[in-house]
Amino acid sequence: MDKETLIAQLKEIVKPYAKNEEGLLNINENTDFVNDLKINSANLVDVILDVEEQFNIVIDNESMERMLDVRSAMEIIEAKLAAK
Amino acid sequence: MIGNDIIDLHLARRESNWQRKGFLSKIFTAAEQEMICQATIPSDMVWLLWSCKEAAYKIINRITNSRVYNPVKFNCTLSDEQENTITGTVLFEACSYPFISHRNSNYIHTVAVSHDVFLNRIDIYTGDSLPSHLFPTGNSLVKNQDGVPYLMNCGTNSTIPVSISHHGNYVGLAQNNMYSGYSF
Fold first, then answer.
1. In what order do the strands lie in the sheet with B139-143?
2. Is B23 at the interface with chain A, CB within 8 A?
3. In whole angstroms, what is the distance from residue B7 CA to residue B45 CA?
4. Domain region containing A39
5. Which range of residues forms the domain containing residue B152?
C-alpha cells in the first residue's frame, strides 16, 4: 500500500473525532492526532479500534503507547500487515 | 506536582461510546472493568476512572516531558466516597498518586498529586471560564515549549506551575496553595 493511500484511509478514520478542520485538510505524515487534529484523549482509543477493524489487525499495548501521530500509526499498520 | 482533569459529562456522552467492543479493555485494567460493571451508574464510573488516569498522566508528563498513550498502565483504586467527593490512588510504575474527585450531574473534576501531603494544600477551581482574579495585573498564563502551563509574575519573572483542563462547557484549574497566597 502506498503512503498516500494509507494517509487517505487514516484521514477517513480520524475525521469523526478531529476537532480541527484545517488540520484534517492538511493531514500528512507529521500530523499529530492531539496537537494538530485536537482529537481528545478518550477518542484516541476509538481511532485505535477503528484502525484495528479497518485493517483487521490487533494493536498491542506497546504499539498503542506511541500511536499519537500519523507517522507512528502508518509504521504500526505497515508492521502489523507485514506480520500477518 | 499536580495534575487535573475535567470531564463535561454531557459532552462525553456524545463524544464517546464506551460500550463499543474493545473500548474498556484497551484503557482499563481488569479490576477497573469490574468496578465499572458493579457500579450503580457504570458511565459515571467510566469517566471517574478516566479522569483519574488523565490527572495522574499529567503529573508524569510534566516530569518526563514525554508523551505516551498507555492508560491501562494507570491503576485506579477508590478509597472513599462521600456524597459527591471521591478519593483514592492511581498507581503507575510503582509510584502512587493520590487523587480527589468532585462530581455533580454535569461534570467530574479530578485532581491528582505526587504525594499525600499535597492533597490538603491545593486550590481547586471548577467553573465555566478561567477565574479572572487569578490573573491580576502583572500575572499571566504562559506555556513552556511542551505546552505545560505556568502562572508567571511579569514583575519578578517567577513562575508557579498550574494545571489547567478544559472540556466542553467546563474548565478546571489546580495549583499548590503554598505558592499562591490567595485561594480561588
1. B139-143, B149-153, B158-161
2. yes
3. 12
4. 3-82
5. 2-179
CB B90 within 8 A of CB B53: yes
pLDDT digits (tens, 9 = 90+) for A1-27: 799 999 999 999 999 999 999 999 999
Establish if B135 touches chain A: CB-CB under 8 angstroms.
no
- Taking alpha carbons only, the member of B92, B86, B96 closest to residue B47 is B86
What is the reported pTM?
Answer: 0.92
A-chain residue closest to B68, CA distance? A65
Q: Tell me which residue in B67, B72, B167 faces A61 most closely, judged by beta carbons.
A: B72
- ipTM for the whole complex: 0.94
Number of structural domains chain A divides into: 1
| pLDDT, tens digit only, all 184 positions of chain B | 899 999 999 999 999 999 999 999 999 999 999 999 999 999 999 999 999 999 999 999 988 888 999 999 999 999 999 989 999 999 999 999 999 999 999 999 999 999 988 888 888 999 998 877 766 667 788 888 777 788 887 778 888 888 899 999 999 999 887 655 555 5
Three cell numbers written together for A12? 477517513
Could you give the number of structural domains in chain B?
1
Q: What is the largest CA-CA distance in chain A?
A: 35
Would B184 be classed as within a structural domain? no
Contacts of A49 in chain B (CB under 8 A): 20-23, 26
- Give the CATH number for residue B121: 3.90.470.20
